[in-house]
Automatic annotation (TrEMBL):
Residues the record lists as binding GTP: 9-11, 22, 68, 101
Claim: Metal-binding is one of the keywords in the record: yes
UniProt organism field: Gemmobacter megaterium
Entry keywords, A to Z: Cytoplasm, GTP-binding, Magnesium, Metal-binding, Molybdenum cofactor biosynthesis, Nucleotide-binding, Nucleotidyltransferase, Transferase
Needed cofactors: Mg(2+)
Purpose: Transfers a GMP moiety from GTP to Mo-molybdopterin (Mo-MPT) cofactor (Moco or molybdenum cofactor) to form Mo-molybdopterin guanine dinucleotide (Mo-MGD) cofactor.
Name assigned to this protein: Molybdenum cofactor guanylyltransferase
Record-annotated membrane-spanning stretches: none
Cellular localisation: Cytoplasm
Protein backbone atom coordinates (compact mmCIF):
# COMPACT_ATOMS: atom_id res chain seq x y z
CA UNK A 1 0.00 0.00 0.00
CA UNK A 2 1.35 3.42 -0.96
CA UNK A 3 2.47 5.68 1.88
CA UNK A 4 1.51 9.33 1.52
CA UNK A 5 2.81 12.46 3.22
CA UNK A 6 1.32 15.92 2.92
CA UNK A 7 2.67 19.42 2.41
CA UNK A 8 0.97 22.79 2.77
CA UNK A 9 2.30 25.33 0.29
CA UNK A 10 2.77 28.60 2.17
CA UNK A 11 5.65 30.17 0.26
CA UNK A 12 3.75 32.89 -1.62
CA UNK A 13 4.65 36.57 -1.27
CA UNK A 14 1.05 37.65 -0.44
CA UNK A 15 1.40 40.79 -2.54
CA UNK A 16 -2.35 41.35 -2.90
CA UNK A 17 -2.72 41.09 0.87
CA UNK A 18 -0.02 43.71 1.40
CA UNK A 19 2.80 41.27 2.11
CA UNK A 20 3.55 39.22 5.20
CA UNK A 21 2.39 35.71 5.97
CA UNK A 22 -1.10 35.32 4.59
CA UNK A 23 -1.27 31.81 6.05
CA UNK A 24 -0.98 33.20 9.58
CA UNK A 25 -3.79 35.76 9.28
CA UNK A 26 -6.59 35.10 11.78
CA UNK A 27 -9.73 33.44 10.46
CA UNK A 28 -12.57 32.41 12.75
CA UNK A 29 -10.34 32.43 15.81
CA UNK A 30 -7.22 30.72 14.51
CA UNK A 31 -4.58 31.19 11.80
CA UNK A 32 -5.88 30.46 8.32
CA UNK A 33 -3.34 27.67 7.89
CA UNK A 34 -4.82 26.06 11.01
CA UNK A 35 -8.03 25.41 9.09
CA UNK A 36 -6.01 23.79 6.30
CA UNK A 37 -4.16 21.58 8.77
CA UNK A 38 -7.40 20.53 10.46
CA UNK A 39 -8.90 19.41 7.15
CA UNK A 40 -5.76 17.86 5.67
CA UNK A 41 -4.27 16.02 8.65
CA UNK A 42 -6.95 13.29 8.86
CA UNK A 43 -6.50 12.55 5.15
CA UNK A 44 -2.81 11.74 4.95
CA UNK A 45 0.35 10.83 6.80
CA UNK A 46 2.67 13.36 8.48
CA UNK A 47 2.40 16.96 7.30
CA UNK A 48 4.99 19.65 6.61
CA UNK A 49 4.85 23.31 5.58
CA UNK A 50 6.61 24.70 2.50
CA UNK A 51 7.83 28.20 3.35
CA UNK A 52 10.94 30.36 3.15
CA UNK A 53 12.33 32.75 5.75
CA UNK A 54 12.45 32.24 9.51
CA UNK A 55 10.72 28.93 10.30
CA UNK A 56 10.17 30.00 13.92
CA UNK A 57 7.01 31.88 12.95
CA UNK A 58 5.34 28.52 12.28
CA UNK A 59 6.63 26.93 15.49
CA UNK A 60 3.24 26.95 17.29
CA UNK A 61 1.84 24.71 14.54
CA UNK A 62 4.21 21.89 15.43
CA UNK A 63 5.05 20.93 11.84
CA UNK A 64 8.40 20.80 10.03
CA UNK A 65 9.05 23.76 7.72
CA UNK A 66 10.72 23.04 4.39
CA UNK A 67 12.42 25.90 2.52
CA UNK A 68 12.86 25.93 -1.24
CA UNK A 69 15.99 24.19 -2.46
CA UNK A 70 15.85 26.19 -5.71
CA UNK A 71 16.98 29.84 -5.50
CA UNK A 72 15.03 32.88 -6.63
CA UNK A 73 11.53 32.11 -5.26
CA UNK A 74 10.45 30.14 -8.35
CA UNK A 75 6.95 29.48 -7.02
CA UNK A 76 4.86 26.50 -5.94
CA UNK A 77 6.76 23.96 -8.02
CA UNK A 78 9.78 24.53 -5.79
CA UNK A 79 7.61 23.85 -2.75
CA UNK A 80 6.36 20.65 -4.34
CA UNK A 81 9.95 19.57 -4.98
CA UNK A 82 10.93 20.26 -1.36
CA UNK A 83 7.96 18.17 -0.28
CA UNK A 84 8.81 15.33 -2.65
CA UNK A 85 12.39 15.23 -1.35
CA UNK A 86 11.12 15.22 2.25
CA UNK A 87 8.62 12.46 1.49
CA UNK A 88 11.26 10.38 -0.29
CA UNK A 89 13.59 10.74 2.68
CA UNK A 90 10.95 9.10 4.84
CA UNK A 91 10.17 6.29 2.41
CA UNK A 92 6.84 7.65 1.20
CA UNK A 93 5.57 6.97 -2.31
CA UNK A 94 3.23 9.94 -2.75
CA UNK A 95 2.86 13.56 -1.71
CA UNK A 96 -0.47 15.29 -1.13
CA UNK A 97 -0.26 19.05 -1.70
CA UNK A 98 -2.58 21.84 -0.61
CA UNK A 99 -2.44 25.64 -0.56
CA UNK A 100 -2.24 27.46 2.77
CA UNK A 101 -4.74 30.11 1.66
CA UNK A 102 -7.64 27.74 0.90
CA UNK A 103 -9.18 27.01 4.31
CA UNK A 104 -12.23 25.11 3.04
CA UNK A 105 -10.51 22.34 1.06
CA UNK A 106 -12.51 19.10 0.64
CA UNK A 107 -12.54 16.54 3.44
CA UNK A 108 -12.30 13.84 0.76
CA UNK A 109 -9.48 15.46 -1.25
CA UNK A 110 -6.97 12.65 -0.73
CA UNK A 111 -9.45 9.82 -1.32
CA UNK A 112 -10.82 11.34 -4.51
CA UNK A 113 -7.39 12.08 -5.94
CA UNK A 114 -6.03 8.64 -5.03
CA UNK A 115 -9.05 7.02 -6.67
CA UNK A 116 -8.17 8.66 -9.97
CA UNK A 117 -4.60 7.42 -10.30
CA UNK A 118 -1.05 7.90 -9.08
CA UNK A 119 -0.83 11.51 -10.26
CA UNK A 120 -3.91 13.71 -10.00
CA UNK A 121 -4.87 17.38 -9.66
CA UNK A 122 -8.09 18.89 -8.34
CA UNK A 123 -10.53 20.95 -10.40
CA UNK A 124 -13.91 22.60 -9.90
CA UNK A 125 -16.39 24.33 -12.21
CA UNK A 126 -16.42 28.11 -12.45
CA UNK A 127 -19.64 30.14 -12.60
CA UNK A 128 -20.11 29.21 -16.26
CA UNK A 129 -19.59 25.50 -15.64
CA UNK A 130 -16.10 25.35 -17.15
CA UNK A 131 -13.75 23.17 -15.13
CA UNK A 132 -10.94 25.21 -13.57
CA UNK A 133 -7.77 23.44 -12.47
CA UNK A 134 -6.36 23.95 -8.97
CA UNK A 135 -2.83 22.65 -9.48
CA UNK A 136 -1.61 23.32 -5.93
CA UNK A 137 -4.05 20.63 -4.78
CA UNK A 138 -2.66 17.37 -6.04
CA UNK A 139 -1.36 13.89 -5.39
CA UNK A 140 2.20 13.62 -6.70
CA UNK A 141 4.33 10.49 -7.23
CA UNK A 142 7.61 10.80 -5.34
CA UNK A 143 9.48 9.11 -8.19
CA UNK A 144 8.98 12.21 -10.35
CA UNK A 145 11.13 14.41 -8.16
CA UNK A 146 14.31 14.21 -10.24
CA UNK A 147 12.40 15.11 -13.39
CA UNK A 148 10.90 18.07 -11.54
CA UNK A 149 14.32 19.12 -10.25
CA UNK A 150 15.65 19.19 -13.82
CA UNK A 151 12.61 21.11 -15.01
CA UNK A 152 13.03 23.78 -12.33
CA UNK A 153 16.71 24.11 -13.15
CA UNK A 154 15.66 24.61 -16.76
CA UNK A 155 13.24 27.40 -15.88
CA UNK A 156 9.87 25.60 -15.57
CA UNK A 157 7.47 27.50 -13.32
CA UNK A 158 3.91 26.55 -14.31
CA UNK A 159 2.56 23.84 -12.02
CA UNK A 160 -0.36 22.72 -14.15
CA UNK A 161 1.56 22.59 -17.41
CA UNK A 162 4.36 20.51 -15.94
CA UNK A 163 1.99 18.15 -14.14
CA UNK A 164 -0.24 17.57 -17.16
CA UNK A 165 2.79 17.03 -19.38
CA UNK A 166 3.84 14.27 -16.96
CA UNK A 167 0.58 12.38 -16.96
CA UNK A 168 -1.51 14.02 -14.25
CA UNK A 169 -5.26 13.49 -14.50
CA UNK A 170 -7.87 15.90 -13.16
CA UNK A 171 -10.58 15.23 -10.60
CA UNK A 172 -13.64 17.49 -10.48
CA UNK A 173 -15.11 18.54 -7.12
CA UNK A 174 -18.55 20.05 -6.57
CA UNK A 175 -18.96 23.71 -5.66
CA UNK A 176 -22.08 23.45 -3.48
CA UNK A 177 -22.59 25.31 -1.19
CA UNK A 178 -19.39 27.05 -2.36
CA UNK A 179 -16.12 26.25 -4.11
CA UNK A 180 -13.97 24.30 -1.63
CA UNK A 181 -10.88 25.71 -3.33
CA UNK A 182 -11.82 29.32 -2.64
CA UNK A 183 -8.54 31.02 -1.86
CA UNK A 184 -7.90 34.15 0.16
CA UNK A 185 -5.88 36.70 -1.81
CA UNK A 186 -7.18 40.08 -0.61
CA UNK A 187 -8.66 41.65 2.53
CA UNK A 188 -12.08 41.39 0.87
CA UNK A 189 -11.52 37.64 0.37
CA UNK A 190 -10.62 37.30 4.04
CA UNK A 191 -13.85 39.03 5.04
CA UNK A 192 -15.79 36.67 2.80
CA UNK A 193 -13.96 33.71 4.29
CA UNK A 194 -15.14 34.80 7.75
CA UNK A 195 -18.71 34.63 6.49
CA UNK A 196 -18.10 31.22 4.91
CA UNK A 197 -16.48 29.91 8.09
CA UNK A 198 -19.52 30.94 10.09
CA UNK A 199 -21.66 28.85 7.73
CA UNK A 200 -19.49 25.76 8.08
Amino acid sequence: MAETRGIILAGGLSSRMGGGDKALLPLAGRPMIGHVIARLAPQTGPLAISANGDPARFLPLGLPVLPDTVPGFPGPLAGVLAGLDWAAGHGADQLLTAAADSPFLPHDLAARLAGAGRFALAASPDQTGVQRLHPTFGLWPVDLREALRRALAGGSRRVARWALDHGAVTVAFATVPFDPFFNVNTPADLALAETMAART
